[in-house]
UniProtKB/TrEMBL annotation:
InterPro entries xrefs: DUF5678 (IPR043734)
Originating species: Scytonema hofmannii PCC 7110
Descriptive protein name: DUF5678 domain-containing protein
Every DUF5678 domain range: 26-50
Domain of life: Bacteria
Pfam families found in the cross-reference section: DUF5678 (PF18929)
Length: 59
């Protein structure tokens, strides 16, 4: 089972994640109708089942 994170990102981390999200909107269309987890470096997990995501890294 995937490890859940219980920490709140800092203001700077939030800004970096928002920048990544805005830059990657076209790329995210590939994951339409799926749950995704991401950070400022990219998608860290995705899948149709929130409890059993398949791991996927984007460069």
């Amino acid at each position: 089972m995937a490890k859940l994170m219980n920490t709140t990102p800092s203001k700077d981390e939030n800004q970096e994640m928002l920048k990544w999200l805005n830059r990657s909107r076209e790329q995210l269309k590939e994951y339409a109708h799926q749950y995704i987890a991401y950070n400022s470096n990219g998608i860290i997990a995705h899948g149709s089942d929130l409890h059993q995501p398949s791991l996927c890294r984007l460069g």
